[in-house]
Amino acid sequence: MAAMELDKTDRKILAILQADGRLSNQEVAERVSLSPSPCLRRIKRLEDAGIIRQYVALLEPAKIGLGLLAYVNVRLEKQRDAQASGSARSGSATPRTDFAASVENWPEVVACYAMTGEMDYLLRVHVEDMEHFSRFMMGTLLRHPAVLDVKSSFALQRIKDTTALPLL
Amino acid sequence: MAAMELDKTDRKILAILQADGRLSNQEVAERVSLSPSPCLRRIKRLEDAGIIRQYVALLEPAKIGLGLLAYVNVRLEKQRDAQASGSARSGSATPRTDFAASVENWPEVVACYAMTGEMDYLLRVHVEDMEHFSRFMMGTLLRHPAVLDVKSSFALQRIKDTTALPLL
DNA sequence: CGTGAAACATTAGCGGC
DNA sequence: GCCGCTAATGTTTCACG
């Protein structure tokens, strides 16, 4: 958890792997002018430090039938906590925690952040089309007891969307 | 560009590679109960069809000094097109196109979508802290001639954030 | 789709700066 | 501490059945 120092070579490695996560260690080593073993040691260090969190394949939504991307702002009801129900209360089922737990099980929701401002949460939702979106809203999101209201916007055009973070 | 049919095995491969993009072909083959060569042929097919767009390493923002995530809604000025300037007009420099071009050069902006609703664009912006954000706003975004106004919200808590799309 | 073989990549141990 | 060599092991990739 120490805030590990990154030198120029480490940053170069991160930039390379952010652009192509499947490059062989040899290829990376060559591009940073190192031999394979110290390069591999650095990559391992970055992985172990949690700086490299994961390697993934990115898919093209349109090509797997996900034609519609929505951002949904969600407002939750205020904490209505000390309301005893029939059985023993576990003590931690606030609207916020069980909304968060539900989000995990909704595969259409690929991202969810608690936000400042009027709305409590911002969700990124991938669906096939408006009908699928509608089904998700009526059948799932709006039915969740913690949800007070929502406001949706739809993506018209992707200008940029990268997983590559800026390296300071 | 044909809307390529995906069978159960293809979907399984996509699910596996969305979760770990560095698995060896052998490992993937084993998990889908195939031998390495047909498995590799399938993966190549998925790459060539553009269904697998890219392989990347995901970094942990907090561990590389990016402590603040903002979503910024941007409204552009209306097209003020037929305004001849001193020299010949190239014909395509609308506010929208040159805003889009600028976004490409701002590494803090990792995503930008044109959206329905009151605001024209939604930007996802990774910065170190409020001071960095403020510098980006005053020095870059608000200085762009096409930008009319902006509204920002900040992430308080990441509930979920995955690149893995739902497979229908 | 699977087999096999050549080319290539990974990774641990060790010596050197 | 960090680098680079070597050598054993494992993986990719393709022609062919």
Describe the structure.
The structure is a homodimer of 168-residue chains. Chain A has 168 residues and is an alpha+beta fold. Chain A has 2 domains: 8-48, Arc Repressor Mutant, subunit A (Orthogonal Bundle); 61-154, Alpha-Beta Plaits, CATH 3.30.70. The first copy, chain A, contains 5 helices and 5 strands; from the N terminus they run αααββαββαβ. The first copy, chain A, has helices at 8-19, 25-31, 36-48, 95-104, 130-141, and strands at residues 52-59, 68-76, 109-115, 121-127, 147-161. A 4-stranded antiparallel beta sheet of chain A has the order 3-4-2-5. In chain A, a hairpin with a 5-residue loop joins strand 3 (109-115) and strand 4 (121-127). Chain A is elongated, with a radius of gyration of 21 Å. Chains A and B meet through helix 1, strand 1, helix 4, strand 3 and strand 4 of A and helix 1, strand 1, helix 4, strand 3 and strand 4 of B. Chain A binds a DNA duplex (17 and 17 nucleotides) through helix 2 and helix 3.
Topology:
The structure is a homodimer of 168-residue chains.
Chain A: H1 8-19, H2 25-31, H3 36-48, E1 52-59, E2 68-76, H4 95-104, E3 109-115, E4 121-127, H5 130-141, E5 147-161
Antiparallel strand pairs in A: 2-4, 2-5, 3-4
Helix pairs in contact in A: 2-3
The structure holds a DNA duplex (17 and 17 nucleotides).
End-to-end distance of chain A: 19 Å
Assign an overall shape of chain A. elongated
Please, how many helices of chain A?
5
Biggest sheet details of chain A: 4 strands, antiparallel
Quaternary status of these chains? homodimer
Mean pLDDT of chain A: 92
Largest interface: A-B, 64 and 64 residues
Which secondary-structure class do the elements of chain A indicate?
alpha+beta
Order of helices and strands of chain A: HHHEEHEEHE
Share of residues in strands of chain A? 25-35%
Question: Reading side by side through the largest sheet of chain A, how are the strands ordered?
Answer: 3-4-2-5
Radius of gyration of chain A: 21 Å
CATH topology of the largest domain in chain A: Alpha-Beta Plaits
What is the CATH architecture assignment of the largest domain in chain A? 2-Layer Sandwich
Question: What are the segments of chain A in which pLDDT stays under 50 over at least 5 consecutive residues?
Answer: none
Protein name (chains A, B): Lrp/AsnC family transcriptional regulator
Keywords (chains A, B): DNA-binding, Transcription, Transcription regulation
Pfam families (chains A, B): AsnC_trans_reg (PF01037), HTH_24 (PF13412)
InterPro entries (chains A, B): ArsR-like_HTH, AsnC-type_HTH_dom, Dimeric_a/b-barrel, Tscrpt_reg_AsnC-like, Tscrpt_reg_AsnC/Lrp_C, WH-like_DNA-bd_sf, WH_DNA-bd_sf
